[in-house]
Design goal:
The structure holds 2 protein chains of 2 kinds. Chain A is an alpha+beta fold. Chain A contains 19 helices and 52 strands. Chain A is globular and about 95 Å long. Chain A starts with a helix and ends with a strand. In chain B, the strands form 3 sheets. In chain B, strands 5-6-7-8-9-10-12-11 form an 8-stranded mixed beta sheet. A two-stranded antiparallel ribbon of chain B has the order 1-2. A two-stranded antiparallel ribbon of chain B has the order 3-4. The chains are: A alpha+beta, B alpha+beta. Chain B: InterPro entries: Gtb1-like (IPR039794), Man6P_isomerase_rcpt-bd_dom_sf (IPR009011), MRH_dom (IPR044865), PRKCSH (IPR036607), PRKCSH_N (IPR028146). Chain B: Keywords: Coiled coil, Disulfide bond, Endoplasmic reticulum, Signal.
Chain lengths: ~950, ~550
């Protein structure tokens, strides 16, 4: 009992000082979470706890393919209720475990995975289940070292590698699938206040209490604040414990504002008292360190140790709570509590982070390759108030020669917040305005939210109503009405296929038979906000759970997927409005597993505080390891007026985020970078220019993630899975495979900082060429971090391609020459890569791109720097979504790039002044500054060789020979 | 064919002239030192490079001066000759970016063939635009000249007013001095007697009551003001809050206020659409019945001041008389009782003189009169005279102030060109609101649907941005109005008026780029400087 009461005690402590946290449930305010935790507490107290669920061995049916089987499962608590188990091994070794109630009173929601997965996974042709007396066994893997064991009684599923358990389902016996029942039956069976003398009756009534508890707690109607959830289906929760016996660190399950290495929620010194919550919600002024749910949910968790990495994806769409504890420093116990849905867990066997990302992206898809311009700088504000305001902002950026690619319009462009409909008082000429922006190669992004103002003169609402594609009230008869920005509003039900073609047709810029957004341009892209959905007068600022979607599903069943559907369809709409299609850009606030296929996300309405700046870095990293790399937080903080120092630091964070957008609340002072005084203004200009110069690195990193699923931002544990010293680091990270290591400063008054170097390697300061030395077991070094600097190192062994001519927008850099930074490692070698295509169409899928590798290696005593064609070597791995059989080096895009030069090669860490530097048989112009060599142990400024204009093209094969 | 292309080294932009992009003023610095390999110095002297490295599309000089004609160096400038129009400098970031810059009509910023030379058309259009601007300036500057003439007249008028006022003040000051003398004398004589009377507990209590009442009145007035201010805030909240935000605290506040003030719920009013236009009058609170003798609110409002203005000294005398106290206890006459004998003869002589003197002025009446109350009458005559003097002095100050501001660059401009517009009110209807700016006065926002206006602030200063000199044309390009009514959840409202030359005084646009910070544009002839001789000449040609 002690464990349980201490939990209760924790639960009643004020969880945080977050503003309006009373608007959102704690675990103790959600009936099923309360029940789940109580179940866990009872299990912990009991000496003889045993899961009531078991497999009926007689029912096992192995499929003809051998890699999957189905079996009946029974619960000793309810012998009459039938469950089925379906376990299959995919061709990449991922194990999928599904359990559902069979012939129940109703049907549990079983479509979550179908929205998240890109396709039905292929069953392994090789794996065979061996049916034993106590268990089923499947052994596979390249070394035959993976074994999956399904034990019959009690039911457990365990994945072993090398004989060691890696992932265990129901190992703690917390699995519980609440079967459907009628309210009347429930009331009948409810324990009655029995007379003391008749203890026999009490015994009888409570024969399930050891597991389920004494009372039916929150089975039916539940209240929260002034809202009542009618819960017509009664209890239908799902609890499952998942243990990682060999892994002391878990990551993922975004979105939470907390450390990357997830802090505990159970155990003696639990960091949080509540479990992590996954329930997409519009949390006003959220807390910077909290397990509270935020705008998106990805139920994907990595478990990591120096020995291996595994992961699980729990495909459930209803509200879920996850407890995390470490019974020892090298193991992790998790407990997943969901309000509804079937059990559908994917076990990814790893064994490395790279393998896990590949396995996860084969399930839910790799991130889409974004348009090139989308990686540039985005300027947003709630609100640029008129078309002239937009023009003026553009003018000011150009006057100050600060690059920017995208101007954004928040909700005030729309007349009475009727999205698509311009407020002509302030935006009389929206198409002309967009064209003025596009004239400098820039784009517009305009907000489209999923709530529709309920007025007949709004064609979008009227058509949705006529098509009958709006979300319904309980019972499913009437269209639901709620309050949002546009006042009394209705919500499109994107689960209804009838809405799909209609929605995509709205974005056509050419007039057609039905209404479409002709007052728009094909360079106008979209921002989907409020898609949790956010409803001002709804429970927890969202939709009543008993609302009805297409197919009769309750909102509770689909809540966490809801936002992804809008994002999905808007991305399709934007792609389809041109022929040939162009890559879409759609920003979403709400997301789920699979959202990475549709565009970018941001961390929502953050605060202009140092704490939120710090949290933003962690959250973006968590999103990256959650498979959704195209992420960023609002630069400057959405709320508040950041002081100049804070704003500068925030841009330092932004330029090293995959998605880089400045945004501000309507109540804030304007804070566009040109408005700052010196020296801040010049620092911001140099930061923006740095981001633009590094766009080749970002784009190359995005190509990689779009094919491999490896995140764009890589925390230490992903880069160096065996270096324990880096497992909890979440304030510094690497950019793709480029070898660039960055540690943005998120504290006030900093002039230097400590950077952790995880290996015995040289790292060079990007700006000063200072050579820092790591150590085999990791070492921290002190790096200057004055306000005009972001601590930014190049790992020895990397070649970094950049474009260093500042332009007004990224499109205007298309034919600018490249600089290569060759950072020699301790062995005197380096390599890097560059991917380029037209940046906006899908012609790369037809082989129109260049993908180069640059290698610097020792030749005799000198150095040979070569450019080779990676695309020709690995055509099948070049492009997301298609495996090209061959690559034609004379493709249209490569021809367009034929005159684009490498204008400069900079080599760090040569051991001595070269005797000659030759390219194409001719001596080149070069300058050498003596300094520390890469292969020594010395600290100090590295030697720098600058080769001027070697006369080579970026898309051609070439060699430069440095004779030392 | 392609392998050929790839195998060839890729040349940098070949054949660019060394002086490409160099402005005329720097041409002499870009002279060939003799041969391609001979050394050339970066303009800031920081480095020597071979002459061949100038304009070779590679940035050698830290100051960027070796690449005037390419985009290779950041932060350098490129000169477009724009023959047929006006030459211009553009940032190097624009060179070779594939866009034809409007500032570079000869197309020299891009590779040849990309941008046509449109300097002829651009030049003509520019001339036309300049002509149009000059025309506006010519007309505007004539009006401006009238404003200046007005200022001169104003100067004369104010100077005249000042002269008159100064003369009047001299006369009045003498008069005040004389009356003060009389009042002081009367008071000094009766002081001791009055002091004694004032020892009366009744009088003391009366004064105490009076002071208490005054204090109460002061507090009451403050409360009324506060209540009105609170009411205004709550009215603004009630009319202006956004029900969509679903902020329960705001909703509570609105409902509470409606209950207190007896107003209908605003959402009902909104629904009924104006059927209750004057909703303030919907539920006037009923008058309470008053106990007999108690004052009504109206009496308190209007008559309390009068009551408090009572001359208590006079009252004291009257009181004495009323209860039959001896009439001759005035200290002036009874002082003999307290006087040391040695002083008596002199005193009595003086007394008679003084009394008779006072009598001749009608201030102190004979011993059967109300001499003490006459003392305050003397005081009153003096005070009235002094008030008149003060008012004349105030007028003088005002006139002097106006005169000072007339040609003050920080007020009406060095030529007084803005004086004419002092108090001129301009309006702009934006649909929902009408904005009004009374120049040098107050800016207001008035809802077109009715309701009270919001003050957007009062004139504080012209463009005070760093580096802008008072008196310069840029200085008069902006007016600031500040400390308007406070925004709910925001700052005090303020206005920046962006001004430019135009033939009429008019507001053109209204915007709210930040919450409660308004930006208005207006034109005024006061900003139209006369054409210079060369400019004027251009039109005649």
């Amino acid at each position: 009992m002690r464990a349980f009461s201490s939990l209760l005690l924790l639960a009643i402590l004020p969880t945080s000082l977050a503003v309006k946290s009373q608007d959102f449930k704690t675990c103790s305010q959600a009936g099923f979470c309360r029940r789940g935790r109580a179940l866990s507490a009872r299990a912990q107290e009991s000496q003889s706890w045993r899961s009531p669920y078991s497999v009926d061995p007689s029912s096992i049916a192995v499929s003809p393919e051998q890699a999957s089987f189905v079996a009946a499962v029974k619960s000793s608590l309810y012998p009459d209720v039938k469950f089925s188990l379906d376990v299959r091994v995919h061709d990449d070794g991922v194990v999928r475990v599904r359990m559902d109630e069979v012939d129940g009173l109703r049907k549990r929601y079983d479509e979550a995975a179908s929205w998240a997965l890109i396709a039905e996974p292929t069953i392994s042709p090789d794996v065979k289940w061996a049916v034993g007396k106590k268990e089923l066994r499947a052994t596979y893997g390249p070394k035959k070292d993976i074994e999956v064991v399904v034990s019959y009684d009690p039911l457990t599923v365990t994945l072993y590698r090398g004989g060691k358990p890696q992932v265990v389902l129901n190992g703690r016996g917390l699995l519980h699938m609440e079967h459907f029942r009628t309210k009347a039956a429930s009331e009948e069976k409810a324990p009655v206040e029995a007379p003391a003398e008749d203890s026999q009756v009490v015994m009888q009534v409570n024969n399930r209490a050891w597991f389920e508890g004494e009372e039916e707690d929150g089975f039916w109607e539940e209240k929260f604040g002034s809202w009542t959830d009618s819960k017509p289906k009664g209890p239908e929760s799902l609890f499952i414990d998942i243990t990682f016996p060999k892994h002391g660190h878990v990551y993922g399950i975004p979105q939470h504002a907390t450390n990357l290495d997830l802090p505990t929620t159970t155990g003696d010194d639990a960091h949080f008292s509540d479990p992590y919550r996954l329930f997409n919600a519009d949390v006003f002024e959220y807390n910077a360190d909290s397990p509270m749910s935020l705008y998106g949910s990805i139920p994907f968790m990595h478990a990591h140790s120096t020995e291996s990495t595994v992961a699980i994806f729990n495909a459930v769409a209803s509200e879920s709570w996850i407890d995390i504890g470490h019974s020892s420093a090298t193991s992790t116990e998790t407990h997943w509590m969901s309000e509804s849905g079937i059990l559908d867990v994917f076990i990814m066997p790893g064994p490395t982070p790279t393998d896990v990302f590949a396995q996860y992206s084969r399930l839910t898809g790799a991130p889409a390759l974004p348009a090139h311009w989308a990686l540039a700088y985005h300027q947003c504000r709630w609100n640029y108030i008129s078309s002239d305001d937009v023009r003026e902002v553009q003018k000011r950026f150009d006057e100050e020669d600060m690059p920017v690619d995208v101007f954004w319009l928040d909700i005030e462009y729309a007349e009475e917040h009727k999205y698509f409909i311009w407020d002509k008082k302030t935006f009389p000429d929206p198409v002309d305005m967009s064209h003025d922006v596009e004239a400098i190669g820039r784009k517009m992004v305009v907000i489209i939210d999923p709530h529709l103002k309920r007025t007949e003169d709004y064609p979008v609402y009227k058509e949705a109503k006529d098509l009958d594609v709006l979300v319904k009230t309980p019972g499913g008869e009437n269209n639901y009405e709620g309050w949002c920005w546009s006042g009394s509003s209705a919500w499109i039900d994107f689960f209804n296929p009838g809405s799909w073609d209609w929605w995509t047709s709205l974005f056509k810029t050419e007039p057609g038979e039905t209404w479409s957004w002709t007052e728009s341009t094909v360079d106008t892209y979209i921002w989907n906000d409020m898609n949790e959905p956010s409803i001002f007068n709804g429970p927890e600022i969202s939709m009543p759970r008993d609302n009805i979607h297409h197919g009769g599903w309750e909102h509770r069943d689909v809540h966490n997927i809801n936002g992804m559907l809008l994002h999905n369809l808007t991305a399709q709409a934007v792609m389809m409005r041109t022929d040939p299609p162009r890559r879409p850009f759609v920003l979403t606030r709400s997301f789920y597993a699979g959202s990475q296929r549709f565009g970018a996300m941001w961390t929502g309405d953050n605060l202009g505080t140092w704490e939120h700046m710090t949290a933003g870095v962690k959250m973006v990293l968590a999103n990256n390891v959650g498979g959704f790399s195209f992420a960023g937080s609002d630069v400057g903080g959405f709320f508040g007026n950041p002081e100049p120092e804070m704003l500068v630091r925030w841009y330092g964070v932004g330029i090293f985020s995959p998605f880089f957008r400045a945004h501000a609340h309507i109540d804030t002072k304007r804070r566009e970078p040109y408005l700052l005084d010196e020296p801040y203004k010049s620092i911001l200009r140099s930061f923006l220019r740095l981001r633009y110069s590094l766009l080749p690195v970002w784009y190359t990193a995005f190509r990689e993630t779009s094919v491999t699923g490896l995140p764009v931002l890589r925390p230490h544990w992903v880069m160096f899975p065996k270096d324990e010293g880096g497992f909890s680091l979440d304030d510094q990270y690497f950019v793709g495979s480029s070898g660039l290591l960055v540690k943005p400063i998120t504290q006030k008054g900093v002039t230097e900082t400590s950077v952790y170097l995880p290996e015995d390697q040289v790292y060079y300061d990007y700006f000063t060429y200072e050579a820092y030395r790591g150590a085999p077991k990791g070492k921290s070094v002190t790096v200057p971090a004055a306000l005009d600097k972001v601590p930014f190192l190049i790992r020895g062994g990397s070649i970094v391609p950049t474009r260093e001519r500042p332009r007004r927008s990224s499109v205007l850099m298309k034919h600018d020459p490249f600089t290569l930074r060759v950072a020699l490692d301790t062995k005197g070698t380096a390599k890097g890569e560059l991917y380029l295509d037209d940046g906006e169409t899908f012609s790369h899928r037809d082989g129109k791109f260049i993908w180069r590798e640059f290698v610097a290696g020792k030749q005799n005593k000198g150095l040979l720097i070569r450019s080779t064609d990676l695309a020709a070597q690995k055509p099948g791995e070049a492009v997301n979504g298609v495996a090209l059989p061959t690559y034609n080096g004379a493709n249209e895009f490569a021809n367009d790039m034929a005159t684009v030069r490498v204008e400069r090669v900079v080599v760090f860490g040569l051991s001595a002044k070269p005797k000659s530097v030759q390219g194409g048989g001719k001596e080149l112009h070069w300058e050498y500054t003596p300094g520390v060599a890469s292969n020594t142990k010395k600290q100090g400024t590295a030697s720098v060789l600058v080769i001027k204009d070697p006369g080579v093209g970026v898309s051609s094969d070439w060699e430069i020979v440095v004779q030392v | 064919m392609l392998w050929l292309l790839l195998a060839l080294p890729i040349p940098a932009l070949a054949g660019i002239e060394k002086t490409s992009g160099v402005p005329p003023s720097l041409l002499s610095r870009y002279q060939s030192p003799g041969s391609d390999s001979a050394s050339w110095s970066c303009l800031n002297g920081s480095k020597s490079i071979p002459w061949s490295a100038v304009n070779d599309d590679y940035c050698d000089c830290p100051d960027g001066s070796d690449e005037p004609g390419t985009g290779a160096c950041p932060n350098s400038m490129f000169y477009c000759r724009n023959e047929g129009h006006i030459g211009s400098l553009i940032p190097s970031t624009r060179v070779g970016d594939g866009l034809c810059e409007p500032e570079c009509c000869d197309g020299s910023d891009e590779r040849s063939g990309l941008c046509p030379n449109i300097c002829k058309e651009v030049g003509e259009a520019y001339q036309k635009q300049q002509e149009a601007e000059r025309k506006v300036r010519r007309t505007g500057s004539k009006i401006r000249a009238m404003y200046i003439a007005h200022a001169r007249k104003e100067k004369n008028r104010l100077e005249g007013q000042i002269t008159v006022a100064e003369a009047e003040i001299a006369v009045r000051e003498k008069e005040v001095a004389r009356l003060k003398d009389i009042a002081d004398t009367a008071e000094s004589l009766s002081e001791a007697a009055m002091e004694h009377k004032k020892e009366s507990p009744l009088y003391k209590s009366l004064i105490e009551h009076s002071l208490a009442l005054q204090s109460l009145q002061r507090e009451h007035k403050q409360h009324l003001e506060r209540e009105k201010a609170l009411g205004d805030i709550l009215d603004a909240l009630r009319l202006g809050y956004n029900p969509n935000y679903q902020d329960m605290a705001v909703l509570e506040a609105v409902r509470g206020w409606e209950a207190l003030a007896g107003l209908p719920h605003i959402n009902d009013v909104r629904k009924e659409e104006g059927s209750t236009q004057s909703e303030g009058a919907v539920a006037q609170q009923e008058e309470e019945e008053l106990e007999e003798g108690m004052w009504s609110t109206e009496q308190l409002d209007k008559e309390l001041d009068k009551l408090l203005a009572t001359d208590y000294d006079t009252l004291l005398i009257e009181h004495d008389k009323h209860i039959g106290a001896p009439a001759h206890d005035s200290l002036l006459f009874n002082l003999t009782a307290y006087m040391p004998d040695a002083f008596l003869p002199q005193y009595l002589a003086l007394r008679d003189t003084v009394v008779s003197w006072l009598e001749t002025f009608g201030i102190a009446k004979g011993i059967d009169g109300d001499e003490s109350s006459d003392t305050s009458a003397a005081r009153k005559a003096y005070q009235d005279a002094e008030n008149t003097l003060k008012s004349v002095k105030k007028d003088l100050d005002k006139a002097q102030n106006e005169l000072e501001r007339l040609f003050d660059p920080e007020w009406y401009g060095p030529e007084g060109e803005w004086k004419k517009l002092d108090g001129t009110c301009l309006t702009k209807d934006t649909g929902e609101y009408t904005y009004e700016v009374c120049l040098f006065g107050e800016a207001k926002q008035k809802p077109n649907k009715g309701g009270s206006f919001q003050s957007l602030g009062k004139f504080t200063h012209w463009n005070n941005a760093p580096g802008v000199e008072p008196g310069s044309p840029e200085y008069y390009g902006k007016q600031h109005y500040e400390r308007g009514s406070k925004c709910w959840n925001g700052p005090q409202r303020s206005v920046t008026v962006l001004m430019s030359c135009g033939t009429e005084n008019a507001l053109f646009t209204v915007a709210e780029p930040e919450k409660c910070e308004y930006q208005l544009t207006m034109t005024s002839p006061a900003l139209c400087l006369p054409l210079s001789e060369s400019e004027a000449l251009r039109d005649e040609l």
